[in-house]
Amino acid sequence: MEAAKRKAKVLTEALPYIKEYYGRTVVVKFGGKAMENEALKELFASDIVLMRYVGINPIIVHGGGPQITHYMERLGLQVRFVDGHRVTDAAAMEVAKMVLVGKVNKELVSLINGHGTLAVGLSGEDGNLIQAVKRRHVGKGGETDLGFVGEVKAINPRILDNLIREEFIPVVASIGVDESGQSYNINADLVAGALASALKADKLIYLTDVDGIYRDLEDRSSLIPELDLEEAEELVRGGNLSSGMIPKLQSCVEAVRAGVRRAHIINGTVEHALLLELFTDAGIGTMVRS
């Protein structure tokens, strides 16, 4: 009886949030260690399906950097990074497409469909969804040619709008295409932010390997639960963030400025992290708001 009462209390606490988010679009960037842990991937898939069944429109964006590196090494290809960015020649681009579109994307779709046949896999090439341009990288050593590394030029949300209308869950691999048909590997954090902005999503959620944004990287008690735009921009400019967190927080800022109501950075290795953020009073992680 006590266990049943606890479940009823949880459902009662979730009800106002279910009502608030009904019919709203939530873009989730899935990445980090959660992508490499089968149990966490299974929980993530079930959480996404639950979100859809209570009336939320989830869109998943994923990368797959470690998986690309693994397959390049197996094929004997050189793996090279400049300032944290993968140098992507033609051979590396083919591996990236094979891994992101042909493996990681299909695995996520299959997991979600195991809980309810709802997911559809896409890359940015499908329906000209992610229009890309070649990225110019200027670092301390001057400009470096990263090869087929791109950035988002524009989003064509029509295909996503159609899928949402038919109650499917889009799962998007972070590959874009330019006007000539050339494919580009794009940072999945930036893709998630651009999609959320184009769709005027209610929420943008980044699943990471840490609990959120810290004022002091060495002090685990300095977690920041909430930031406004000015505070978030100051942290980005200040440089006291890990290299992987900078594009996430910058994307949060740009998305909120573009009309996304709230953006979140949460720990995807926590079981049911999405549900804790969406449907509980306390929430988790760091939230950026206007």
Task: Provide a descriptive summary of the structure in words.
The chain has 290 residues and is of the alpha/beta class. It has a single domain (22-289), classed as 3-Layer(aba) Sandwich (Carbamate kinase). Helices cover 41% and strands 23% of the residues. Strands 5-10-2-1-13-15-16-14 form an eight-stranded mixed beta sheet, with helices on both faces. A hairpin with a 2-residue loop joins strand 3 (81-82) and strand 4 (85-86). Helix 2 (38-53) packs across helix 4, helix 3 (65-74) packs across helix 4 and helix 7 runs antiparallel to helix 8 (245-257). 42% of the residues are buried. The model has no long low-confidence stretch (mean pLDDT 90).
Sum up the structure in keywords.
single chain; 290 residues; alpha/beta; Carbamate kinase; two-stranded antiparallel ribbon; 9 helices
Provide a concise account of the structure shown.
The protein is of the alpha/beta class. It has nine helices and 16 strands. Helix 2 crosses helix 4 (90-113), helix 3 packs across helix 4 and helix 7 runs antiparallel to helix 8 (245-257).
Average pLDDT number: 90
CATH classification class? Alpha Beta
Annotation, overall tally of beta strands? 16
Structural class assignment: alpha/beta
Shape: globular
Task: Provide the number of structural domains.
Answer: 1
For the biggest β-sheet, the strand order reads: 5-10-2-1-13-15-16-14
CATH superfamily: Acetylglutamate kinase-like
**CATH architectural grouping:** 3-Layer(aba) Sandwich
Q: What are the low-pLDDT stretches, counting only 5+ consecutive residues below 50?
A: none
Helical amount: 40-55%
Q: Report the span from N to C terminus.
A: 43 Å
Strand content: 15-25%
Order of helix and strand elements from N to C terminus: HEHEHEEHEEEEEHEEEHEEHHEHE
Oligomer: single chain
- What is the radius of gyration? 19 Å
- According to CATH, the fold-level topology is Carbamate kinase
The biggest beta sheet is recorded as: 8 strands, mixed
Helices, by number, come to 9
